[in-house]
Amino acid sequence: MPTYYLVLIETSGNQAYVFQTNKRRENVGASEAIRQVGSESVCQVVKRITGRPISPQTLLSPDVNPSIFGSDSPVEVVYATSGKALCVVRDPDDGRRIVREVTLQARREAPGLDVHGAVGAWDPETMPAHKALSELHRCHGKVKRLLPSESGRFLRVPPVENCATSGFPAANHDPKDPGPDDDVFSRVALAKRSFIDDWDEQKKDLDPEKRLMSLREFEEHEERRMKWAAVIHADVNGMGKIFTKLHEYLGAEDGTTDPVKTYFKGLREFSIALDDCTKESFKKAVAACRTHKGKVALIPLVVAGDDMTVVCDGETAMDFTLKFLRTFTKTVEENGEGILAKVAQKAFDVKRFGIRAGIAFVKPHFPFYLAYKLAEELTESVKQATNEWYPAGEYGTPVPFAAFDFHVHHASSAPNLGTRKEHQVYNRPYVVTPIDDSFGASSDVVKKHQWNLLKQRIRALQASDEHDGNRRKISRSQLHALRAALMQGGDMAEATWRLIKERHPNVAAPFDDDFRTTLLDAMELVEFYKGTVSTTSESPTP
């Protein structure tokens, strides 16, 4: 068998690039720039090499993107998604051409974005494909470490004027910017803004019903009406293990006897199916959200592969997150013969992937990068909790389920989740997936973290006064005082809670003996959860 060459293109520092400023037009433009590097840019170069009309939408077509094994095709695109692409080529010059043209285009059109590529020789007779990919990733890491960061291109000596939105040197005005006429922007900021029209076009695929606010509508809503913003980040659990062992899970079920061909075909199908599942879950979650003047106050930043990041009005966050998590797991379960369900069954003994989400509630002008970092830390806290509920070695791997953690950040300083954990005052995270036999012996522990229990507690705090339906039994000022007492702990917390129980026994009923943790969780979400989404069915809750 002849020697082939694997080509890997990947962006790095994506979070810093996207969340560098609080300007939404730069956030969405940066997100679109990353998406195009791994998808359109790679396909355009391959199209020039092969002469075939290849695109991210035609990767599954054997006529447009045939397997390089058993054909005369010079290039096979294994996957081309947001910020990452993998190709197989016969000629190393074609591989170097792909890397050169993609990185040069990124340098011209998206300055400030780190994009690196690597080309590695591979002999299928001496090395399995999955091991060759591991070697290629190590090679790519070396390339990334050897090259200077993109930020080093924008020096501040001699002194130059500051960009209006970033720390880079200013370059020019933006005629489309609604701000002051004398604002000047860096090349990085202007480049991000140049992708806004492309992002708007791409958003149409995620929002076919046109329920989402336009970028300008969202900016106006954020400035005039929004009391709380929310950054939501979600990713699928265990994807590292999945991709590492994908060659074991795929087998040769497509009837071919060529394991190499089967592996790359399966890797492409799995990547595209995962991407489609994430996007479909996003669409259904948007459809379930409450609207303001007929539009949903939400901006998609990353909806690709196993990642999803959005910024939205705090009032929309819970509706969206609950529906997204439930839809994602349900889509995999119901598509029992699909590649996602087959891989999940072999990896976890259940046709379901685990997915975790973090919701960071912050004030609209809170630094966006810190808000995203908080949301990312919250998703990690779900993983940590999972490892505590299912210690290493028990049942082989943790049971896959959908869960979320959240934090309402009242201060203007950077949040510290470590402090929250030290005080032991919260019961988070919460599991959205209905608990069944697959949860094993730890199900009793997990039951204490069911979302439905938290929902009942929120409902109790939202209960209306019998004599005045426009007022709650427990007012906002009373909740504020109760929260302060709970944070103090000790006798003050006990005395305040006894008083609540005596006056409002129905409100106190859903809370267990360990009322401190469960009560604080419910209190923090009482203004954010309105109950427009059911987590167990497609119909709205009353």
Task: Describe how the helices and strands are arranged.
Elements: E1 4-12, H1 14-18, H2 24-38, H3 40-50, E2 75-81, E3 84-89, H4 92-109, E4 114-122, H5 129-146, E5 170-172, E6 185-186, H6 187-193, H7 196-206, H8 215-224, E7 229-236, H9 239-244, H10 246-250, H11 259-287, E8 298-304, E9 307-313, H12 314-334, H13 339-348, E10 355-362, H14 368-389, E11 402-408, H15 417-423, E12 430-431, H16 443-447, H17 451-461, H18 476-488, H19 490-503, H20 505-508, H21 515-525
Parallel strand pairs: 10-11
Antiparallel strand pairs: 1-3, 1-4, 2-3, 5-6, 7-9, 7-10, 8-9, 11-12
Helix pairs in contact: 2-6, 2-7, 3-4, 11-12, 17-21, 18-19
How would you portray this structure in words?
Helix content is 47%, strand content 14%. The protein is an alpha+beta fold and 542 residues long. The longest helix is centred in the middle third of the chain and has 29 residues, at 259-287.
